[in-house]
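pasting for ref
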Amino acid sequence: MAVKSMTVKQVARKVIDNEPLFILDVRNGDAFAEWKIEGGNFQYLNIPYFDLLDGVEKVVSELPKDRDILVVCAKEGSSVMVAEMLDEEGVDVAYLEGGMKAWSEHLEPVKIGDLKNGGELYQFVRIGKGCLSYMAISGGEAAIIDAIRMTDMFLDFAQEKGATIKHVFDTHLHADHISGGRTIAEATGATYYLPPADAEELVFDYAELVNGLEVAIGDAKIEALYSPGHTIGSTSFIVDDQYLMTGDILFIDSIGRPDLAGLAEDWVGDLRESLYSRYAELADELIVLPAHFMIMEELNEDGSVAKKLSDLFKENHGLNIEDEQEFRDMVTKNLPPQPNAYQDIRSTNMGKITPDEEVQREMEIGPNRCAVR
């Protein structure tokens, strides 16, 4: 009998629903330490595939009998072989279809809420990478914010909702993942917007995303708010006076890093002004919707990543550092490693290079690193 499999969607639901799962990860130790499937009720064992070639007998005693067991590798093949070996030993296991590559690309759509002037707002949670994209729908029209490169999900979703995609926005020039914004715009005839300060090296046409720009979809309104700091062009959105899309400036548990173009010292002042002045003037009741999340604890019970701005001003450490020098030191001296292939990702998003799909997958593998630790 063929060994069982588990889809990335099934695993995503276990993460969101806080269900128990035991993961036997057979990638090399450095890959496991760098990035793994995370869940609040997950347990792990990392044993490289090559250490199991002579048999899995020594592993059997380390596997639990009271929870599902999932074997994981990079692309699927090694996990299938290990799962089959465990199955022969009488262990009930499954392997992850598509491996960590599939996990990196899975999108989970979550409804954030209704728009007060009519319509709906959806968040697309890329749970294995920490990316968050958005689609606002009203009056049969749609706008997409910070789309990732798996564009079929957005096109199919809009079609299911009977909406025509009219506008596509990127809050900034992304450095940790490849944007799907231009591809969606080309496929639909929508207008693609990017902040001009981030677009000086672009080799394709775009519409300038400037402070105060207002765009309507149906009866809903999307307003641009210039908020530099993560990049010099970073721009936020206020949607229907209800939601604040912060891009990579403000997260639920942290704040954005200003160094992905190598200009941390130059941009840290802009970051503080955006967070402590521009955002401080906004309505407390706005729901913050960032472009990334860093840890699974940032997910709400329904799988969404969202919180009131007033709550973040109380709880987010990055918004509560009174001394400006202390803030500057925290931001510039506490930075995690740069994202994998971030320079190539930036060049791809500028249109300077056009890697094939497999190369793009490899460029994005790993966790996002857009936040100050």
